[in-house]
Amino acid sequence: MDLIEKKISSEEIFNGRILHVRRDTVRLPNGGEAFREVVDHPGGVCILALDSQNRALLVSQFRYPYEEVLRELPAGKLEYGEDPREAAIRELKEETGAVAGEFRSLGELYPSPGYCGEIIRMYLARDLTFGETHLDEDEFLDLERIPFDQLTEQVLSGEIRDAKTIAAVLKGKLLLGL
Question: Residue 138's pLDDT band (boundaries 50, 70, 90)?
């Protein structure tokens, strides 16, 4: 069966600084029509950064939609058209002060494919050297180093609930054999 839906028309609902929302009319595989509400987002990056003692760098920050402080891997939003690898290198330096000698892709994550086009690119950073952090003026966070095995346990127990952190940690665990 052909599962592809074809866009017939599109209406802009909201055009913000980060998010753009539209309502599309689509042709369904059976010939019928339906509406799809879509959030366009430039995407983001997250970095599983491990120091020489296999401790992961985590940041804690208040996340307004949930009204709580979450512990997550260093991460950031892309600018439209920005190279994800360069953004990840920048975000790691800004949030943690770290620069990686080894920097490689852990793949992509589609966090909410039912309504959002965001793609998060995940990276592994190792062989770290540290300098100054350079947080954005509206960014407030605490940095910690946690043994990778302990972080993995926190992911598995549900203590860590951030999707990008969960995915990157579990991929790192399997790929690195740590």
Answer: confident
Q: Residue 147's domain spans which residues? A: 44-176
Q: What is the pTM of this model?
A: 0.93
Residue 131 is assigned to a structural domain of this protein: yes
What confidence category does residue 154 fall into, taking pLDDT thresholds of 50, 70 and 90?
A: very high
Is 1 inside any structural domain? no
Does one domain contain both 63 and 134? yes
- Say whether both 18 and 54 belong to one domain: no
Give the separation between CA 101 and CA 167, rounded to whole angstroms.
23
Q: Is residue 170 part of a domain?
A: yes
Residue type, 34: A
Q: Are residues 61 and 14 in the same domain?
A: no
Assess contact for 56 and 173: CB atoms under 8 A: no
> Which residues participate in catalysis according to the annotation?
137
CA distance 103 to 155: 23
**How far apart are the C-alpha atoms of 69 and 45, rounded to whole Å?**
19
Total number of domains in the chain? 2
* Helices vs. strands in the chain: H and E counts, helices first: 3, 10
Instruction: Place 7 in a pLDDT band, splitting at 50, 70 and 90.
Output: very high
Could you give the CA distance from residue 34 to residue 5 in angstroms, rounded to a whole number? Answer: 9
Question: What span, in angstroms and rounded, lies between the C-alpha atoms of 41 and 56?
Answer: 27
